[in-house]
């Protein structure tokens, strides 16, 4: 497999490392950061030898790739032109862009245009990752397979922010003053977790349900005392992380509820409950690493994307399970 | 959806009930049991009114079905002609036949012929159910999505036989003398669980791995004292259920291990562990009902089978995940 990487930040570099472990060939790496343009990716990754590929700003360097992994930003409006440039080169693309996992919600016009362009160029584009993309959407959908009629899906992911990389810690505002935090969240300077609604819509879309209402909410979790967790020192009253949820309603009933908790010292697990008309099943995990999980999901999809039909696809287009809700 | 049912025994009847709950139409029901042929299926199912379909021995009664659910026996050689008759009518078929979930292992000649016939008639045939079909094969494969490189997959299902239907209890020999039990197992008079190797092969096939060796073993579990569990009275020394496993080896290492325990009073759960090169994740459930689970998996696949490509398909042909093992 010959892979190109668009966005050579922390996720792009992890993609490169893991692709090399698979024995795949990296044919190009694109970034806009002047500090790394022109550098050999082997040097950046700390390999013993040069790899023979330098970071470039020119997307045409990816022309020989069987697939490109795109990992730059969470919002489709910011990355639309980047992905379009890959489509126009005729390269199948898997992106970690969270809002691309269900782009018809926040960016319906861009989504339709991107689908059209992908079809025109015979290219497959798919947004995925660990969350959104797998743990709170694809996997809950798969777990409805043993249910004839589903009443409700509840899924939760909880992770210990002290075990995550620095950019994640910054994204969720650890150490900030709560008011300053809420302001930053409102102004979009902080994002917290992106993708609650996308996961809700992925499930609803697989089930063929038109939801009456989708809600998203996110709030800081505050230290109730001075704490030292891992490398982090936080004072009482400061932010130690976030919790949030996305919900989907049908006929005034909450039928989908997805929660995400990420704070210093949180227990690590996923929990998925499917409630059917006759029985319910709860699955609980020991916790899935976030970044490595995202990279693995992306590489696993990259591995098969050349066989998929062209267009802007969703994870739910490629899994054969459709929760059957009765309404 | 217009559904036909081939085999109106306990599973076929449950299929009928659950299909009706979905609002699907049952267009025909086939069986060889003289006691039910000619009877209205509504009567057999205990509905308040006749349904308007009588059990027939003539497969052509299913001609109007969009899909047929086939539920008669565990062994492909016994049901091959039944499935072929459906294929020749041009009807997509989902079967609960355990060995059809990976027929290339026990019945390679029949599997290839069935695939050829399905392609000739433009029909899709797929064997699935809760186990084999989902819990110990499809689901573990899906759970490898967050792993870049997989080292080993271990999955176990444990169920309380006292909560299962009579025919299952007979199949696993509860109350028998252990020696008599082993003899019956050897002679094929008792089957226990069918499908250990099929699940192992489904995983290996998804991963594209040629296994060096596949093992299956099954043995009785013996009461260590007189017991009363639910409606069951068992004396010390009698069989209270079975345990068994299927394993797959590559380069002399066990890389797939699937266990199944079913005995009176057993705890009910599934547990799936994926061991990657850098981390492992264990998922554990509160337990999935067997018969209802099988029926649900089958109906969920029946719901989409008209959209699949023709041929004899496997569950692994329709899920987009392929565990990446390094060897």
From TrEMBL, chains A, B:
Keyword vocabulary terms for this entry: NADP, Oxidoreductase
SUPFAM superfamilies for this protein: NAD(P)-binding Rossmann-fold domains
InterPro entries: DAP_DH_C, DapB_N, NAD(P)-bd_dom_sf
Location of the 2,4-diaminopentanoate dehydrogenase C-terminal domain: 134-318
Source superkingdom: Archaea
CDD domains listed in its UniProt record: nat-AmDH_N_like
Gene Ontology terms, MF aspect: 4-hydroxy-tetrahydrodipicolinate reductase
Domain Dihydrodipicolinate reductase N-terminal intervals: 1-74
GO biological process, one term: lysine biosynthetic process via diaminopimelate
Name by which UniProt lists this protein: Dihydrodipicolinate reductase
Species of the source: Staphylothermus marinus (strain ATCC 43588 / DSM 3639 / JCM 9404 / F1)
């Amino acid at each position: 497999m010959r892979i190109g990487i668009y966005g050579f930040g922390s996720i792009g570099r992890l993609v490169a490392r893991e692709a090399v472990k698979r024995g795949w060939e990296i044919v190009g790496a694109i970034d806009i950061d002047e500090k790394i343009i022109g550098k050999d990716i082997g040097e950046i990754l700390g390999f013993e030898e040069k790899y023979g590929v330098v970071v470039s700003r020119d997307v045409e360097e990816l022309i020989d790739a069987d697939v490109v992994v795109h990992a730059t930003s969470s919002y489709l409006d910011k990355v639309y032109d980047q992905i379009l440039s890959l489509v126009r080169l005729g390269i199948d693309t898997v992106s970690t862009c969270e809002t691309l996992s269900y782009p018809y919600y926040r960016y319906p016009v861009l989504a339709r245009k991107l689908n059209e362009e992908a079809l025109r160029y015979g290219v497959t584009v798919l947004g995925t990752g660990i969350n959104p993309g797998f743990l709170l959407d694809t996997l809950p959908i798969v777990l409805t397979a043993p249910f004839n009629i589903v009443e409700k899906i509840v899924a939760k992911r909880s992770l210990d922010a002290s075990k995550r990389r620095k950019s994640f810690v910054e994204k969720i505002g650890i150490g900030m003053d709560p008011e300053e935090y809420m302001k930053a969240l409102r102004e979009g300077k902080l994002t917290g977790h992106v993708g609650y609604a996308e996961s809700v819509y992925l499930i609803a879309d697989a089930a063929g349900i038109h939801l009456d209402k989708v809600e998203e909410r996110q709030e800081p979790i505050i230290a109730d005392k001075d704490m030292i967790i891992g490398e982090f020192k936080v004072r009482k009253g400061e932010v130690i992380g976030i919790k949030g949820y996305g919900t989907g309603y049908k006929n005034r009933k909450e039928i989908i509820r997805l929660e995400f908790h990420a704070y210093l010292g949180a227990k690590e697990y996923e929990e998925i409950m499917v409630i059917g008309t006759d029985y319910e099943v709860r699955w609980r995990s020991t916790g899935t690493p976030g970044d490595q999980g995202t990279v693995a999901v992306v590489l696993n999809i990259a591995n098969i994307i050349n066989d998929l039909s062209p267009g802007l696809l969703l994870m739910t287009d490629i899994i054969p399970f459709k929760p059957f809700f009765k309404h």
